Amino acid sequence: MVTTPKAHEPLARILLPSRGEPNDVRTLYLLESEQNKDRLRWQDRTQVTIPAGSEASFETYFNAFPAAYWRRWSQLNSVILALDVEGEATLSFFRSKQDGQRIAISHEHVTDGHHEFELKLNNFEDGGLLWFDVSAIKESTITDAAWCSPHAPAPQRLPDGTQYPAQPKKVAVGIPTFNRPADAVAALTALGSDPFVDDIIDVVLMPDQGNQHPADEPGYAEAVAHLGERFREFRQGNLGGSGGYSRIMYEALENTDAPYILYMDDDIAIEPDSIYRAVQAARYAESPFIVGGQMLNLQERSQLRTTGEQVNRSDFMWGPAPHAVYDHDFAKYPLRAIGDAQSRLDPKNYDSRALHRRVDVEYNGWWMCLFPRVVAETIGQPLPLFIKWDDTEYSLRAAQHGFPTVTWPGAAIWHMAWADKDDAIDWQAYFHLRNRLIVAALYHEGSPKEIIRSIFKSTLKHAMCMEYSTMAIQIEAMGDFLAGPDFLFEILETSLPRIAKIRGEYADAVIIESADKLPAPTGAPGVPTRNVGGRLGKVKKLPWLAKAVKHLVSKEDPAHHEAPQLNLTPEEARWFTLARVDSATVTTAGGTGVAFRKRDRALAGSLIRQTLELLEQIGDDFDELREDYRAALPELTSRQSWKKVFDAQ
């Protein structure tokens, strides 16, 4: 442990919760000992007072230092904790192993003054965190604590072996928005809420693609006035997420000299220091990489949605990266909750051990994602995919050029989890499938059989669930994929209206205000509505499958189209339930209404036949389509091609 002052600049500040945060959210920042007689106090986010005899731990999501990631990806061999102390306390330093086991490093007695402690990063090959606990001997106030670098960033090594100079601490923040004026203004306001972070924001770019403008929203003038000449808004048609983010990248490269470009969604809650942390991770990288921010659940704010993802190469579908963790609630399972030898014998027991393991990913969602300028200049613009898979494709393309993606712990925003949306069955299903096929054509090697099998399995589930509008627009998606890459820019702005028109022809796409607007459900005796889990779940469902098939081949009862048999929540709307009835209402994921689904055997059969024909054609033509899409990629991702789109707006 080195105590000679050496800190060069902060990498991540130690933060306190914002005022008014509930207890579960506070656990993301600090943990108070249950034995404390007096509570900790703080008036701002960088100063905390610990009463005499009380203890606090910073082994938390936002304040533990992700040492394994810094060891793997950065130029640093050590990190310095710098802090100011008023009072008398003991600082206890710890590290964890990849399985969460805690290792004590040292205990340091501190009194009034500035203190710095250097900790090595040589014990974190597979995972592990660094943190400190505080035990106040006398009432102690800790101010401006931060994990700091011991030196300035050095030049980076590019994939071709040449050096890239160290970059200044500046970033262009881009937030595309579409008819979320209040959310957009809240995001702009948050950017200016922390002077420490505000100081590194070089420019804020906001493509406005809707007809409900942030400029008309209360608070907009104040937020923009604070940003001043740094704020630039662009009115354009609805070009989707890829069009909005591509505009940000285009403007950042053409009209700014910002060394980093940060994408953020508009419908998020921001932890501003995450912006700073992402920039510092990029500046101190051994070689440039894309820095992905993690997603915390906006509706369950102590819950981390995922620690990392990859594309499964068999069926070319999103999935968890090795060792990834989903839906982890830090309020229930803090980082220290690693269980013991006895509890780990029971596979039903859950703990936080996996949170200490480093996770290597392939891509990161664009709810928060930072791109070094050199990456964007090297590999080009996003694909014109409107929405879905554009973020995945960009990281896969970057990796081919030697620029990996890293999902960085402790840099995060709050966003509604995708599990709380209907995007697998609503209009977005068209883009899910079309773009999955396009990206597969670009990056999948070998036979597409598993991809085709996966799509057909999904089609059968949609048929069982009476999701005929989904099947119809997925047929449209396959047709557009087969048409080749030449039409992608042409249909960028027209696909959504076309898909909306198709969906409007199907009852399951019509949202009714409430099930109360329909006759009371007539019932479906014997039909299961609860899922069966466990290792034998699939076996237990076999009798349900047999009964479902028998029902599906029978003629539907028209009487059930007048009144639903069941009213189902989204969680209850499973194939083994819906395949056994002729009708049901299903509540939307957001709880804003219901869809009245009605079984139509003839329609289902027609849609399945059309799907099979298109899947057969995809299998036959995939090699040729692969060549076409790969040959078109440079043109589809060129700045000049996108300039034509923007100039036409």
From TrEMBL:
Pfam families: GlfT2_domain3, Glft2_N, Glyco_tranf_2_3. The keyword Metal-binding does not apply. GO terms for molecular function: glycosyltransferase activity. Keywords: Glycosyltransferase, Transferase. It comes from the Bacteria. Pathway: Cell wall biogenesis; cell wall polysaccharide biosynthesis. Residues 451-647 form the Galactofuranosyltransferase-2 C-terminal domain. The keyword Transport does not apply. Residues 11-150 form the Galactofuranosyltransferase GlfT2 N-terminal domain. Belongs to the glycosyltransferase 2 family. This is Glycosyl transferase. It comes from Corynebacterium phocae.
